[in-house]
Amino acid sequence: MKFTGMTMAAALVAAGAAGAEEVHVYNWSDYIDEELLTKFEEETGIDLIYDVFDSNEILETKLLAGGSGYDVVVPSGTFLSRQIQAGAFQKLDKSKLPNIENMWDAIEERTEKYDPGNEYSVNYMWGSTGIGVNINKVKEVLGDDAPVNSLALLFDPANMEKLASCGVHMLDAPTEVIPAALTYLGEESDAQDYETIEKVEPVLTAIAPYVLKFHSSEYINALANGDICVAFGWSGDILQARDRAAEADNGVEIEYHIPKEGALMWFDQMAIPVDAPNTDAAHKFINFIMDANNAAAASNYVYYANGNMASQALLNEDVIGDTAIYPDEETVNNLYTTTTWDPKVNRNVTRLWTKIKSGT
Amino acid sequence: MNFRRLFLILTPYTWLLVFFLVPFAIVFKIALSDYAISIPPYTPQLDLSAGWEGVKSFFGELDFENFTFLASDALYYSAYLSSLKIAAIATLITLLVGYPVAYGMAQSSDEWRPTLMMLVILPFWTSFLIRVYAWIGILSNEGFLNQALMGIGLIDSPLTILNTNIAVYVGIVYTYLPFMVLPIYSALEKLDGSLIEAAEDLGCSRAQAFWLVTIPLSKPGIIAGCFLVFIPALGEFVIPSLLGGSSTLMIGKVLFEEFFSNRDWPVASAVAVVLLLILIIPIILFQRNEQKQREAGL
Question: Would you say the ipTM is above 0.85?
Fold first, then answer.
């Protein structure tokens, strides 16, 4: 009897939900000011179902399986270009995106490399991949002249051996770590042939035993809590860790450094899957994010630079004025971008990555 | 009567066909295809609009290349082997922990049994993922276990358990323990107590009676429990990826890498097919053997 009542209630809830318009957004974890989500629902009356991932690979697998059910997804540039090639996205209807005039041409020029003509995507955030350090602990271990702004901190086993005592995390993403290791070796960071890429093996094998964990999101908390002293990670994540540590007032002081040898510049792009259930609402969401106020609110919260020119006037001073987020021109010129490896090279790289991590 | 019999025979076979053979055929077909940048990410696709020619060219493009690839890289071999080892050891530990629990339950008075049964099933009311996650909090360097051990002065510095194979064993044994306890309990519960008395009357000590009567009679429960633990443990992905370290090599993780990092569905499917064969062949052999023994016994 009770059971029937519950089933009926569930059916009613389902019927109620089916009546309202929904939009499903799939974005990176820790990547938005949640107040914006409520604001979008209030402004448009559309139910926003917001879901998060922490690796491009998960997103890509869902997209390539088809029928992901998402209306807006946020892949990074290199992944985006392969997904466009696979036919995973639909072209944006720019007439539904009046706020597109807010976008920053300097960023749009760079994203053309992945999405020619920017037909399928608009920029959400961009940043660099660099070094986060718990500066006091690192100095304790390596001395006051610790090379915190150099890739040698990570790739010289002599440094890593000592740093292992206070904990090092590294992104579990060969697409991020291998270009950095290539740069350290003085090779082309965007090398496409496996013979060149393979040169990173001895470097990474030598330091892997000193890496506590290869993971792409845990380092935010680990850095902030003081569990680790070095993380090779994404700029905004490390700055979020810096912020959380400052809020907790736990004596942990985090710094972010763009390595002087150069660093990867990446772009996370909003795009609409080809089989999105609600294309109209998807455009509304993208347009909402491109509003100068909303883009500024997002950047002020997550400490990543956005591709929105109009939002720059509205950014907090600790965002727009921080060269770790909006680097000066000289640093930007030292940033490099990468392109996607072809499937054969990619398979070899994944194999190499497993070998580096597990020793097999 | 005849119709009813036919229905009874058909039901399990239809079940097997729909939920096992058809999915297996689909996975096997993907294992024979090649990687492609498309949706879905493999080729060839069956194109029925081209008629018979389409079907012919579809089958013409399938090959066993992915299986030869698996044989050429030691990674897969060692991952299968290490999964077998981890699953076997974990099953043994689960049996050693689970048997006394089941025995105790079967020995308890009738009024207690439903409560004890409830206690075994109770953990299922919490999500599996949350229970595995809880072990991170227990086993980590700053976790309860290390804090407690250091508190009572047993160790000076924290033991590294999390991100090692020990944590994987703990996770598997903990998670699958009820699957071992329940079948053994149900075998022991049916055990006729007078058989033990008879054995003791005939001069067996209690330990001998346990070894010569109780254990053999609970064998079906032990076997069922071992299968229920060993099979899922072999392909386990969540436990090694949450509790294990980067050096924990298990086939579930390799499958995940193939599927997500390489986006190579054909190779991932080939890995899955081989995993299934590794499981099914020994099970069939085992059942044959059992049947022979039963027939010989008659």
Answer: no
Express each pLDDT in B25-79 by its tens digit.
999 999 999 888 888 888 887 777 777 877 887 887 888 889 998 998 888 999 9
Contact residues on chain A for B247, CB-CB shorter than 8 A: 357-359
How far B265 CA lies from chain A's nearest CA (Å)? Answer: 10
Tens-place pLDDT, residues A91-122 = 999 999 999 999 999 999 999 999 999 999 99
Say whether both A76 and A207 belong to one domain.
Answer: no
A148 plus A233 within the same structural domain: yes
| A141 and A216 housed in the same domain | yes
Closest Cα to residue A354, out of B252, B238, B87, B253?
Answer: B253
Dist CA B275 CA B31 (whole Å): 13
CATH number where A156 lies: 3.40.190.10
Tell me, yes or no, if B37 comes closer than 8 A to chain A by beta carbon: yes
Q: Is residue A333 domain-resident? A: no
Partner residue opposite A86 with nearest CB, options B41, B74, B261: B41
Q: How many folded domains does chain A comprise?
A: 2
- The answer to whether residues A42 and A111 belong to one domain is yes
Let me know if residue A2 belongs to a domain.
no
Q: Which range of residues forms the domain containing residue A207?
A: 128-265+338-358
Residues B113, B115, B120: CA angle, nearest 5 degrees: 95
Window from A2-11, A346-355, B67-76 with minimum mean pLDDT: A2-11
Asked if A262 and A183 touch (Cβ cutoff 8 Å), the reply is yes
Task: Please state which CATH number belongs to domain B71-297.
Answer: 1.10.3720.10
Provide the Cα torsion A288, A291, A296, A297; round to 10°: -40
> Is residue A77 domain-shared with residue A113, that is, in the same domain?
yes
Do the chains contact at B78 and A360, CB–CB below 8 Å?
yes
Answer whether A360 sits within 8 Å of B74, measured CB to CB: yes
Which of these, B209, B180, B208, B211, lies nearest to B193 by C-alpha position? B209
Find the Cα–Cα–Cα–Cα dihedral A134, A138, A140, A141, rounded to 10°: 140
Asked if residue B266 lies in contact with residue A347, where contact means CB atoms within 8 angstroms, the answer is: no
For B254, the closest chain A residue by CA position comes to: A354
